[in-house]
Each structure stands twice: as C-alpha cells, then as structure tokens.
Amino acid sequence: MPEPHAPVPGHTHARALDSDGNPVITTSGLTKVYRSRGRDVTALDGVDLHVREGEVYGVIGQSGAGKSSLIRCVNLLERPTSGTVTVAGQDLTALAGRGTRAGKELRRARSRIGMVFQHFNLLASRTVQDNVELPLEILGTSGKERSRKALELLDLVGLADKARAYPAQLSGGQKQRVGIARALAGDPKVLLSDEATSALDPETTRSILQLLRDLNRQLGLTVLLITHEMDVVKSVCDSAALMEKGRIVESGTVSELLATPGSELAAALFPVSGERTGADRTVVDVTFHGEAATQPVISQLARTYNIDISILGAAIDTVGGLQVGRMRIELPGRYEDNVVPIGFLREQGLQIDVVGQEALLVKEGAK
Amino acid sequence: MTWSEMQPLLSQACTETFRMVLWSTLIAVAVGLPLGILLVLTDRGGLLQNVVANKVIGQIVNIGRSMPFIILMVALMSFTRWVTGTTIGTTAAIVPLAIGGIPFFARLVETAVREVDNGLVEAVQSMGGNTWTIVRKVLVPEALPSLIASTTTTVIALIGYSAMAGTVGGGGLGDLAVRYGYQRFETELMWITVAILAVVISLIQFAGDFAARSLHSRGGRSGPAPKLRLLKAEEPAAADVGKAA
Asked: What CATH number corresponds to the domain at position B98?
C-alpha cells in the first residue's frame, strides 16, 4: 500500500487532471424511462458523463433529478432504457444482454466496481469482518485470504478493533466505514457512492469524505459520488455535474465551472450576496480562478484608481492550493464611471460580471 | 382408571404425536421454505420475476391454506395410500399433516423474507452476487429470526392438526382424548392430555421465542423481536381471505 501523500500546500492536486485524462466511466445518451401505472416517467434523459481516471466526480441535484438512477445505471443495478455505459473500457450495457437477470460477465464486471450506500446496507446477521468478507466469498477467495484481506481493509478504514462487532453495535459513521471497506474488498478501480454521507451528521460526514479523499489519493481510486449537498462537492470533488430533470445541465472541473459565466453550480459552490447600497453605485462580481487569484488585485485596484471599494460578500476557498471563489464588490459611481477600473480587473485575468448589467444590456439590445 | 393404566396409553400417544409433528414439520419446512422464497422472487419486481409462476404458486398456496384440515385429510386419502400404502396409522397421518403444513409455512416464509431490506439485496448484486448467493447469504440469514418464529407457529399449528388426524386413526394425544375422554367419559385422562398439550405448546413457544430473540438481538440489535403467534391457525387464514378479496 502506498504511503499517504503529505498534504503539500499548492500541491494537493498534484495529480492535476488534464482534460484528456483517461475516462474510466463514460455514459453516452443514457436514458431511463420508468413505467408506472401506465405512465412513462423519464428519470434520465440522454446523460453523457465522463469521469476521468483518479478523480472524484460529484453529481449534484435535487431529489428526483435522476442522480440515483444515474449511479445505479453505472453498474447496471438499473437497466438503462437506451444508451451505453462503459466502465474501465468495458461496455457494460453490451454485457448485460437482453434478459433482466445479470449474466456471469456482468456480475464479474460489477465485482470490480465498489459501491457504498446511503443506508450502509450491512448484513445485520454478520459481524463487521464477515460483512467485509462477503464480496470475497462471492469472488471465491479462500477463507484464509479473505480474513487477511478483510482485516487489512478494516485497518485501512480505522476499524481494526471492531472486526468482531455486529453492525448494530456501531455508529453511523463506523457503519459507513465498514461499507467502504466492503466496497474495496474486490480491489475495484471505481467506487460509486450513492449519497454515502446523507444519513450522517456534519462531523461524521466530514470524516467520511476525508476517508474517500484519502482512498482516492492512496489507491488511485476513481470515485463517482452523488449527493444533494453542495458541501460534499466543495470539500472533495475535482469535477462536478449538476443534474436537473434527468439531464446534466452543467459539468466540468471545479475551476472550469467557475470560469463559466452564469454557471449555476459555481454560483452555488461559491455563493455571494449583497445588495447595492445606493443608486449611483456599481456592483461587480469578481471570480477568482487560476493564477490571477494569487495577485492582490483588489488593493491594486484601490491604489491605482484611488477609489474606495466595499466588499459586499465573498466566498473564497482554497481548492487545489489555489484561491478560487467569488467576491462581490461595490464601486462608487455608475457603470459608465467605472468602465476603466472594470477594464483593469479584466486585464488581470479575472472574470467580471457586473451585477444587474446583463439585464440592462438585454434591454438596450431590445431597443 | 388408575395412573398405571393411563401411563402406557399416555406415553404411546405422546410418542405418536411427536412422530407425526416432527416429520410433518421437517417436510413442511423443507418444501415450504423454497416455496415461500420463490413466492418472493417471482413476484413483480423480484429477482426472478415471473408473473405466471407467481400466480400459480400463490393460488396453490392459498387453496392449501384455506382448506379445512379435516377435509384436506379426507381428500388426500388416495394420495396417502399411494405414498404410504395405507390411510390409517401415524405414518399415514404424516402425509396430510405435511401437505397441510407446507402452504402454511410457505406463507409465513414469504412474509418473513419480504421483510428483508431490498438495499441488502442490491448491495450483494453490486458485488456481483447471483440470485442463489442472494438467497443463501442475504434472504435466509437475514430473515432467520422470523423464520424461526414461523417454524414455531407451524409446529404448534401442526400439533393442533395432529389431534384431528388422530380421530381418523392417526393415534396421538388427540385420539386419546377423544376415545377415552369423550367416548368413555374418562374425564381425568382427558384433562391430563389437555395439561400435557398446554405444557408442550408453552415449552415450544418459549424455546422458539428464545431462539428467535437471541438471534435477533445479536449485537444488541434494537427493536422488537419478531412476533410469535400463539396457536392461531385462523389468523393468517383471515389475512389470506383479505388478500384474495
């Protein structure tokens, strides 16, 4: 087992993901239609997802957006109505065949995809160790090897001392650790996490996310997680996708999303608020991503143009050692008076959105 | 009648009842368990979804469940003769008892297995487990406390049925109570059989209860242990009627 990487500031994302990294999970045109009481309900409507090797990919959306159907289609617990799913170069939809039952090859492919669940899904009739051994029993591993592997995994998730306990004796966070250990038993390349932290309190959520992050780094595990909590995406994800009504409406790496003007996901990840304090003032949203974020631009702006800047709101985070986020500032004077300072900010490589201005431009265009 | 006269009668009757109940329970469990599991698996949305098979098994079980045992016994006479070569005696009584017990137990198994959280099934599917693995490693072990409770209920119901079987020559405690207690006014002997039955049933209930509870509370699993029904053969029948309606 490789040593955990020490967190070096600025290098926490040392395995920087270039956009042509190998896709480990690819879905194309994934559609799922449920028939219920004679009515068709479209849960997935042509979803194209690309999860690159070694990244933590978060799919976020409200309940009913189709996230759960999506992740369950990835290991074909749910049969997609149309479209294909490829995991680690293997077309699972082709393996599935036509019947409703999973054939041998599909089952073998599934054993190489780990999955953790919101409600842990541990067998109450088995001890913690026996729960972790279950996937190995299915793989036909010998008893001795099973027990060695299970103990090693329990050690990895920090529960070596609970091997003989029953799930009922564990806390929610501990149960999920067992769930994770179990998911890793088959040495998967890919881990699917179906709302793994949604049943946990904030403190435990943080520790479970940290564990997923560590496993991602130590084992090079690719993680696809679905969640309805923005904090989850913010704290562990390299990339994210926003789902609405069965479609992916936005996707990309966190900094790509930030660079996308009007990105809902970026706005939700880095929410800024604050109202204009007077009529003759201009409110500007400044988005920091990439190199520009290292420059003290705001104070440069104040000094260069000798203007007073009020910060109305800001959401700045260190993602991958870079400061990313957004800040809402207010400049004295109308927009017309601030063209030059705004131009200065743009020159610094910052993304600038003048609040209320888009509406104004549209209005002018309409004239 | 003196005790020395009653004693051999009682011990023989107990042995006969024991034989009838033991064998019929074993057969009912052996056949009813897979049948009950199949009822769950073939149901809509089940792992082996097969609406036709589900309906057929369901109907057979329903008919078997709603048939009064005494009629079933008479109706099965030719089958019993074919199997055991006779329609009289303890061995012959085992046949209708087992056949009456199968649908009874199968329904209880169905209910118990249905209670197993579908998430567990999904988890094993996601590990690459097949249907047989799911039955063996999830459905049966997770439903075990309820299955034990169901077995207890079945044993007690079969003790009740065996008394009926006794009246047509099956022997056992029921036969003894009818022949001596009812036909010869040996009230004392009748009360003794009643007492024996009461004690035996309580003991079985207690043992089953204890086994189910100790399995259920493994590792301090909270929540109530599966409920055990006290000699209420009519209760599930009523549920079946409600289901059919």
From this structure: 1.10.3720.10
Last residue of a domain, one of A264, A284, A303: A264
Contact B44, B173 (CB under 8 A): no
CATH of the domain at A347: 3.30.70.260
Minimum distance, in Å, between the CA of residue A169 and any CA atom of chain B = 6
Minimal Cα–Cα distance from B18 to chain A, Å? 32
Chain A CB contacts of B138 below 8 Å? 123
Range of the structural domain that residue B90 is part of: 3-244
Please report the ipTM that was assigned to this predicted complex: 0.79
- Six token digits for residue B51: 């609406």
Report the domain count for chain B.
1
Which mean pLDDT values do the consecutive 10-residue runs of chain B (245 residues) have?
85 91 96 96 89 93 90 90 88 92 96 94 93 94 94 94 82 86 85 91 93 76 49 40 38
